[in-house]
Recover the amino acids of this structure.
């Protein structure tokens, strides 16, 4: 097999090939003066099982287009099979028509990948798991929980004193999976918009004098997480942590986390933006490498 890295997160690609004890394929990726992307594969991949590693994180449009161009280059170089390894799948929140005359961009990206020549997709913690159904090709959907759970257990100690919290009703299923794995209780922050400027929030479950672990699939500006943390602190929570699969943090998100009631955000290195004060990053290279090994071996 051959592992090709895009420019979105080369560090992760290098850690994956280190786990597999192979080298990255020699691929040249650069931009012309007008911004167009150019890709050249500098070695023979004819008949090979090719894995292209490229999270579609910011700059999202650039990284999506670069991935499509790399796929086309591999297909025209006669690769036997092309698997797009997309640890973070951008546009996943645009998965339905929630307003009139809006696109379903997650489906569009799925169509683009298939049309470009992708035979299989390997991804992790999609914002909406049903996006797997947008593809007419196999999708291997991994979960960040195995990468995060060990550190979470070490951090909180006795699980009987911990409550796992979903920051909204939509994340209950994910929070339940973490609560069952840790052996702790579950609670929910339920918000209700009273008016355009006022939101009421209630906590369903017991958090008083307990450590709490907010669980979410992704955060960008950290607004939901930090607001939920403040509510939990007001309801008597002892310490507030957050476990997030994808921390696509910009300046605003890092500042909010730094100034919030959250003691620590625990996340993965699915995107290069994961990091900052009070942010602990757990590696997923081993998880992705094992998935790639099993796909290549038909296991």
């Amino acid at each position: 097999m051959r592992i090709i890295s895009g420019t979105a997160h080369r560090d992760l690609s290098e850690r994956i090939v280190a786990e597999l004890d192979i080298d990255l394929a020699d691929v040249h990726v650069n931009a012309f003066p007008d911004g167009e992307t150019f890709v050249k594969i500098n070695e023979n991949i004819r008949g090979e099982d090719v894995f292209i590693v490229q999270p579609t994180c910011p700059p999202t449009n650039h990284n999506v287009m670069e991935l499509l161009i790399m796929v086309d280059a591999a297909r025209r170089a006669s690769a036997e099979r092309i698997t797009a390894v997309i640890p973070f799948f951008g546009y996943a929140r645009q998965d339905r028509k929630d307003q009139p005359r809006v696109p379903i961009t997650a489906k569009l990206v799925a169509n683009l990948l298939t049309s470009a020549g992708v035979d299989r997709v390997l991804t992790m913690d999609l914002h909406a798991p049903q996006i797997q159904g947008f593809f007419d090709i196999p999708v291997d959907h991994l979960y960040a929980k195995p990468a995060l759970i060990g550190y979470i257990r070490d951090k909180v100690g006795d699980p009987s004193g911990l409550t796992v919290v979903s920051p909204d009703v939509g994340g209950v299923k994910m929070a339940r999976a973490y609560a069952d794995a840790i052996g702790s209780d579950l609670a929910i922050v339920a918000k209700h918009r009273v008016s355009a400027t006022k939101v009421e929030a209630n906590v369903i479950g017991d958090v008083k004098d307990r450590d709490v672990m907010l669980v979410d699939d992704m955060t960008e500006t950290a607004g939901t997480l930090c607001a939920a943390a403040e509510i939990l602190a007001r309801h008597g929570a002892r310490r507030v942590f957050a476990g997030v699969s994808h921390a696509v943090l910009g300046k605003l998100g890092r500042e909010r986390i730094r100034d919030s009631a959250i003691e620590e955000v625990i996340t993965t290195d699915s995107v290069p933006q994961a990091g900052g004060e009070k942010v602990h990053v757990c590696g997923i290279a081993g998880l992705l490498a094992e998935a790639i090994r099993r796909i290549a071996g038909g296991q």
Residues 180 and 186 are 9 Å apart (CA to CA). The longest helix spans residues 60-76. The mean pLDDT is 93.
